[in-house]
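Request: Give me one sample?
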Amino acid sequence: MYFTAETLATNGRLLRQWESLWAQRNIWDKSHKLMTNAYKGAMDQETLASNALLGDGLGRDFWAEIDRQIVQMRDQEIGMEIINDLMSVQTILPVGKTAKLYNVVGDIADDVSISLDGQPPYSFDHTEYASDGDPIPVFTAGYGVNWRVAAGLNTVGIDLVLDSQAAKMRKFHKRRVNYYLNGDATIQVQNYPAQGLKNHRNTIKINLGAGAGGVNIDLTTAATDALLAFFGQAGAFGARARANQVDAYDVLWVSYEIWANLARPYLININNGANGVIGGSVMTAIMPFIPAKVIKPTYALSGNEFLAYQRRQDVVSPLIGMAVGVVPLPRPMPQNNYNFQIMSAEGLQVKRDGAGLSGVLYGANLA
């Protein structure tokens, strides 16, 4: 979802998005040059200085700084580590697609004949299809620099632009992370709601609370035996994995409160419990029995909350219609501010297969 040398070299669709981004930037350069030339005779010296640009436009060095900061800031927002972890299974799509649909293959007759001559009886029916899908909304934000303060976006001006971009980019990434986790109730395409990893209809849920259907466990304070009973193959976590034919989730994300409980020293009792020695952490003691390859903490989850998934494109995939980029907005008059737009088009798809199985699991105190 970011323009880097590596992603551009390996994905043709992303390269076309990059070319489109630069086309918009070049259009701005030409438009700005036409505007300044048209009004140059009517500008005073201060206005002329504020509209002076190096060469014929903002220039490659200017945009190199802008793009470099976008990439640098991608890891600074809480929860971005979850999104970045899923980038290896992202799906790049044309920007014109507002939703990514897929077919769910239905059942077919289970009659298989065994005979010596290979002749019927057996049926010649066909499978039926159902469909599911997820929206790909556009994320936009803007920031600007006063036309007088910018002084033509010179050395001082680029610093002001970068500082403004950094401040807005934090808010932009925060909104993106929230969408990937929780979706957006206001977005719907073709009756398909925008849902996140935690609340997606295809995500398996475990109610950790004490209410109806809850397993009544607080993972932030549970004793070692209780943690093993929950996460092990015979517990609620392991049972959900088996029910969905998951050998092991690639990542189990937990809140730092759960992480702290898992990081407790694991005491091994000796001499009938009279003495104890530290045998590593609770996590290292129970990890061999948990159907998860790795456990990681994140501040994107809090309290009694965890998230696990198989990192496979047929299970979960970020949908990228447009990677995160910045373009300048037109300045029809010399006194217009230098305004910039941050934009991306992206969504999230969580799938179930034809048997209704899912490789994404979320646990919390659910009402």
About this structure: Residues 48 and 126 are 72 Å apart (CA to CA). The first strand starts at residue 91 and ends at 92. The chain has two domains: 5-105+131-195+314-350, 204-313.
